Amino acid sequence: MSTSAEQSVSHVFKFRSVSYDLSQRTHIMGVLNVTPDSFSDGGVYFDVERAIARGQQMANEGADFIDIGGESSRPGSEPITDDEELRRVIPVIDRLAKTVSIPISIDTYKSKVAGKALNAGAQIVNDISGLTFDSNMVNVVREFEACIVLMHMKGTPKTMQKEPSYGDVVEEVAGFLAQQAGIARKEGIFRVFVDPGIGFGKTVQHNLEILKKLRRFAQLGYPLLVGPSRKSFIGKLLDAPVEGRLEGTAAAVTTSILRGANIVRVHDVREMKKVALVADALKNDPSNV
Questions:
Q1: What is the number of helices (H) and of strands (E) in the chain?
Q2: Of 88, 95, 116, 265, catalytic
């Protein structure tokens, strides 16, 4: 259950040009991968101009955040150098920060990349390692007074899908997120989102169990971010390639919202914005008990 300290965490987050009350409606985080090899859209937005155009399009479609990533975290992927990651993301962040009013997130676990991205205009660090890969990350996030997304992942992107196992996946993931959020707060980082990491070191059944019991993660007291978009568990359930997972993503996003997600991280912003509007109406119906 939530502790009194956790219950005191505000869901009102102020960024440079906007303020969001994450408890009032579902907020949309659009995915912008500037990579040649991401599982869903690798190569599509690798060109800087095309990436910037897509970011602006997502803002126009109703995204509340744009999450920019320069290194693929697909299962089996190899890491790239800090310099290569910076070469990919900084021109996009720098330009987008000047042309959209919504907050930009940098999807990285490297403190050097995070620092330069925040300096270029990002306001959120989305760390798939939950502050476990780079000990300097807490210092960078604190220095910039940035928001941090703490995600759970078992292993590394290269190894995470090699027969992942848990005693109790929900409790183990919730325990990790509570622990890392506590560390962040002790280090002076008070703007924290938690993400159970759908598809990161989890089997199909693990992912389904997490989604079925998502309220457990909402009980931690921190804004809850969920990213089921186009994930392989949907593909396996539907026997569908990445481009055929829109309806499955909509079902997973709806489930996430009804069970406590404050933010959904998605590729298809326009479509999932509509899904969220309907799901929010159902969620907020007083008769829906």
A1: 11, 10
A2: 265
Class of domain 26-283: alpha beta
Domain ranges within the chain, ordered by starting residue: 26-283
Choose among 67, 22, 73: nearest CA to 193: 22
Q: Whole-angstrom Cα distance, residue 147 to residue 212? A: 27
Tokens of 171: 């409790």
Quick check: pTM over 0.85? Answer: yes
Model confidence pLDDT, tens digit, residues 60-88:
999 999 999 999 887 777 889 999 999 99
Active site residue 265: yes
228 or 40: which leads in pLDDT: 228
**Residues facing 29 on adjacent strands:** 65, 265
Which one is catalytic: 231, 245, 259, 273? 231
Active site (annotated) includes residue 231:
yes
DSSP E strands, the chain: 12-14, 19-21, 27-33, 65-69, 104-107, 124-127, 147-151, 192-195, 225-226, 263-266
